[in-house]
């Protein structure tokens, strides 16, 4: 994982180490000057110091890969992308399963079958929500380490019988560092020893003030197992999405992020891509990380063949020449020769960076813009 020492972080911000240590302490992290902290925590500190931070990903600007900004009039609403986080055994997987069963479209199609690293549910009013189906902080941080901001909303699952635990706090920090709004799902309320108010009070101690206690963080009591209040949770997600006013231009070459990728026997390199802008079509040539390909086959989250994928849709893409990494960006380009040029450039650039910066390359890079 990416790390940086307290001293190095302080010097990069031209701040006193003591101030950094004090800020860390306020965040509940005890660290000495020579200790290392992870990139997310570092980013949070940087934000606390009032600096803007931008993680450097690929040399997209240099090579002009990312398309220019869209004019406001071509933007249309897109569905929110949600990541579920929380302490182990608090019910992340159960909640994702429960949510999947609310999918109106899947029910109509006769059941929920295959799923990839993300899925989209259609809620009763016809609106859609995309869930990243790789719960846990690792996926979240791995993607952010590559500069990918995938998630619009974090659902923080806290078991009502267990309360705030170390990974709950970690999840809060990640969401805060990424500046992603949080919705608290107080789970397992069916249990006899459930104490949702205790969860709210404990969250308060970590700076999370839920609505019931007069704050602004949306919260809902759920039971993933009994399927209680799952629709209510979805409503809150859509409410939060409305506040964020999420929009995207579907009328342009596709851009997105790799959620997961692997080599599969008989299928070759396969990537699950979340489309963020534009429309991906069969036959499109694309670049992703240091790999490129031509979309030979597109499958939706139920394994059905599709011709196009639009913003907010997770899609399985076949036709890659290699396996990209989770969090790698994905961009459609004009033709194969352009795709080759970009990947050659990126491969060389990545190698140079690694040589220049040594092991801490990515952190150094990330902090170079403070
Ligand atoms: P994860 O580690 O956060 O993904 O948690 P899981 O979804 O695997 O759940 C851990 C355990 O808690 C499992 O035994 C679940 O059956 C149980 N569990 C999850 N949600 C609920 C709930 O709403 N009520 C009760 N009683 N048990 C739950
Ligand atoms: Mg799980």
TrEMBL record:
<feature type="binding site">
    <location>
        <begin position="187"/>
        <end position="190"/>
    </location>
    <ligand>
        <name>GTP</name>
    </ligand>
</feature>
<comment type="similarity">
    <text>Belongs to the TRAFAC class translation factor GTPase superfamily. Classic translation factor GTPase family. IF-2 subfamily.</text>
</comment>
<protein>
    <recommendedName>
        <fullName>Translation initiation factor IF-2</fullName>
    </recommendedName>
</protein>
<feature type="binding site">
    <location>
        <begin position="133"/>
        <end position="137"/>
    </location>
    <ligand>
        <name>GTP</name>
    </ligand>
</feature>
<feature type="domain" description="Tr-type G">
    <location>
        <begin position="77"/>
        <end position="247"/>
    </location>
</feature>
<feature type="binding site">
    <location>
        <begin position="86"/>
        <end position="93"/>
    </location>
    <ligand>
        <name>GTP</name>
    </ligand>
</feature>
<comment type="function">
    <text>One of the essential components for the initiation of protein synthesis. Protects formylmethionyl-tRNA from spontaneous hydrolysis and promotes its binding to the 30S ribosomal subunits. Also involved in the hydrolysis of GTP during the formation of the 70S ribosomal complex.</text>
</comment>
């Amino acid at each position: 994982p990416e790390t940086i020492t307290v001293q190095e972080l302080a010097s990069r911000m031209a701040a006193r180490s003591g101030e950094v240590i004090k800020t860390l302490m306020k965040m509940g992290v005890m660290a000495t000057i020579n200790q290392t902290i992870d990139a997310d925590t570092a980013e949070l500190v940087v934000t606390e110091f009032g600096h803007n931070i931008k993680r450097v990903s690929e040399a997209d600007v240099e090579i002009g890969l990312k398309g220019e900004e869209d004019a406001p009039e071509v933007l249309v609403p897109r569905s929110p992308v949600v990541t579920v986080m929380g302490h182990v055994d608090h019910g992340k997987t159960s909640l994702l399963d429960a949510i999947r069963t609310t999918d109106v479209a899947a029910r109509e199609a006769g059941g929920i079958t295959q799923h990839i690293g993300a899925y989209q549910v259609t809620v009763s009013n016809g609106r859609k929500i995309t869930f990243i189906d790789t719960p846990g902080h690792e996926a979240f941080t791995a993607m952010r380490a590559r500069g990918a901001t995938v998630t619009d909303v974090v659902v923080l699952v806290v078991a009502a019988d267990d309360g705030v635990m170390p990974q709950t706090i970690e999840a809060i920090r990640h969401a805060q560092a990424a500046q992603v709004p949080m919705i608290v799902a107080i789970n397992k309320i069916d249990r006899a020893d459930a104490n949702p108010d205790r969860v709210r009070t404990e969250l308060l101690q970590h700076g999370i003030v839920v609505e019931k206690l007069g704050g602004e963080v949306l919260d809902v009591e759920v039971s993933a197992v009994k399927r209680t209040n799952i629709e209510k949770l979805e409503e809150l997600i859509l409410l939060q999405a409305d506040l964020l006013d999420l929009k995207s231009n579907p009328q342009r070459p596709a851009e997105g992020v790799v959620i997961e990728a692997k080599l599969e026997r008989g299928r070759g390199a396969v990537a699950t891509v979340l489309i963020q802008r534009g429309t991906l079509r069969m036959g499109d040539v694309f670049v992703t990380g240091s790999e490129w390909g031509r979309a030979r086959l597109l499958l939706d989250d139920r394994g059905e063949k599709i011709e196009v994928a639009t913003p907010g849709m997770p899609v399985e893409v076949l036709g890659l020449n290699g396996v990209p990494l989770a969090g790698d960006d994905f961009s459609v380009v004009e033709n194969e020769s352009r795709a080759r040029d970009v990947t050659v450039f990126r491969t060389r650039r990545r190698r140079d960076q690694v040589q220049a910066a040594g092991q801490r390359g990515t952190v150094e890079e990330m902090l170079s813009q403070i």
